[in-house]
Amino acid sequence: MPILTSTIHRIDKPDTETPATLTCAEHAQSSAASLEALLTSVNDSFHAKPKAWGHFGETGSSAFAAGLSEYLAGSVDFVTWSARMAERINALIDDHLSVGGHLLFVHYQHGETQYVSVALLHHRQGFAIDNALEVTETPQLNLGQLMLAVRIDLAQWQGGNSQQYVSFIKDRGGKKFAEGFRELLGVEEGVDASGETRTLLKAFSDYVEREDLPDDASREKTDAVIDYASTQAKHGEKVTLDELSELIDEQHPKAFYDYIRHQDYGLSEEIPPDKRALNQFRRFTGRASGVSISFDSHLLGNSIEFDAEHDRLIIKKVPGPLKEQLKQRKE
Description:
Shape: elongated
Strand content: 25-35%
Helix content: 40-55%
Radius of gyration: 25 Å
Number of domains: 2
Distance between the termini: 67 Å
Number of strands: 16
Order of helices and strands: EEHEHHEEEEEHEHEHHEHHEHEEEEH
Number of helices: 11
Strand order of the largest sheet: 2-1-4-5-8-9-3-10
């Protein structure tokens, strides 16, 4: 993960009542293995957080995007642009947070793609053992507490065909702060990652049911889908319908893709996977004595209950078509 350039600024805010103060770096960070290791850890934490995906608004409406464009065009250096953005972030923190931290700005390359990332790194008190084998207290970066972070896929942004090249943390515990950060970036949300993931999983469930696959094949394909999507989420990458379709059926790699398009689920070609939605999804399947049952795991305990003592499965919400068939049979 080569770092092309980076800089770190500091925001001090001792408490809620004291105004935040900004100390800007005068030069870029020197390239070092420790900096790359830090970026890797920050990215791991970032990918694990709930995020929103979107794109910059109209040209000129975002100082963040305008300044980034100037940097990429070579008319302003990275340190200058990052310092300007740090001033705006400092004001946002002053309004919404009681603590400061270090602002990490990084332009780096991962594979064939270049990204620009910004993250506010908070601190916590930790412990170390010195050369004399004595325990000492020392401040440490608390990477698990990321509240402000954004990543821009430069290739997708400059290509002009994507509506989801900006991903940023959407802290559900601080809605005003998250909204202020979105406005600072000038980003319009282009896709509901959670909703899209749930729709994709619903489409997969419908497809498996239509194909009437054996239990083993159904479980195998479900595990493959979840593993693929979870891996993409872990690395901050999107699920592509083409890749997923090929994964589901190697002999007929376009079958699932064509099914989605013909059924008009309204899914994007690329979907940022939502980890919470993925974790809730596992299918339970069973077939015996002329009875075939298949349902998503997240329904267990809600619309479906399992009574282990009496060996019963209780379905509270009967599917509409099945209900109509049962009514007709009764009549």
